[in-house]
Amino acid sequence: xxxxxxxxxxxxxxxxxxxxxxxxxxxNCLLVTTPGFxxxxxxxxxxxxxxxxxxxxxxKVTANPEIYDVSNWLDYYKNEDFKYIISIGGGxxxxxxxxxxxFLASNxxxxxxxxxxxxxxxxxxxxxxxxxxxxxxxxxGSEVTxxxxxxxxxxxxxxxxxxxxxRPSIAxxxxxxxxxxxxxxxxxxxxxxxxxxFESIWNRNANSLSIxxxxxxxxxxxxxxxxxxxxxxxxxxxxxxxxASCLSGMAISTTKTSLAHSISYPLTTHxxxxxxxxxxxxxxxxxxxxxxEDDGRLVKLSEQLGYKSVVEFELFLMDLFIDLEINxxxxxxxxxxxxxxxxxxDDMYTPERAENNLRxxxxxxxKALVYQSLYC
Length: 376
Ligand SMILES: [Fe+2]
Known about the structure:
- The protein is of the alpha/beta class.
- 49% of the residues lie in helices and 10% in strands.
- The chain has helices at residues 16-22, 35-39, 42-49, 67-77, 91-106, 183-201, 208-228, 235-255, 259-271, 275-278, 283-291, 297-304, 310-323, 326-331, 339-343, 351-354, 363-375, and strands spanning 10-12, 29-32, 55-58, 84-89, 131-135, 147-152, 157-162, 170-172.
């Protein structure tokens, strides 16, 4: 049973303008966001709440942020006197804010690659800047986790940072912000939260609380997601997905992710497959794979989600993925032949993630899971 630290993030479920105004911190602020949000006027809206003289705007974040870009941006901001960071955007935006928070506060001149590595950094003290996270997607759960992920596109590597100090101090959860996202992007984000929940349940580090949070997350997501396409602006559905994302973020804060995420990383670095898609397409087959060594938690999960048996739940999961057209979406990113599985097979085993999986995978298992998920 894994011990946990109590989660220090203040969660606010209310309108983002009022919530931000009520929780501002004295001093200069670095606002981290994307070019799209600036273009759409959200940054101007935010500057009506935060004194514009006190704000420095970094609006260059894109999906799957590149570690070398972040390193250059850190050089640019290193002599600024910030007191806190506001991050408004999806998981990538919050992750960049976490990297800024960690490295700008430590004022270190060493290469950030020393701290970002496959294992991440989990020990030692750091005076990270407080972060106010305002998520605009429902998937990463980054608003409540102590993790940040950056990517090396040239090196085909994924870099992790894990430190309690980078967990946001405040997360403002206003579902209206997620309604700007189109259906496909919303789906891909939601698949990430579903993956976090499953990966946290079939995880060797799970405890009663992480399993409860993950189960509640799946319960909400499975009710909301099938209705989303036809009701894209439904604020209740958006709110359910936002809470589901937060709950699975809490769950992986305890357990970290496992084999589906391990498999996903080279698919993102080699083929540019969006993270939520790459980390979820194996879930139905992984459910069956882990059933072979279930200690009762997957049986209990199936029952708690309202299914008579694990077989019935497995069928539901397979049907859901067919209805959501996951297979055809992911294949649009992949080469036509199947040789790529063999060529990146070794990279699909990241020990720090794969070893968390309930059932220990062999290389042949990983190849079979990927093949069966896509081509059977
Ligand atoms: Fe993820």
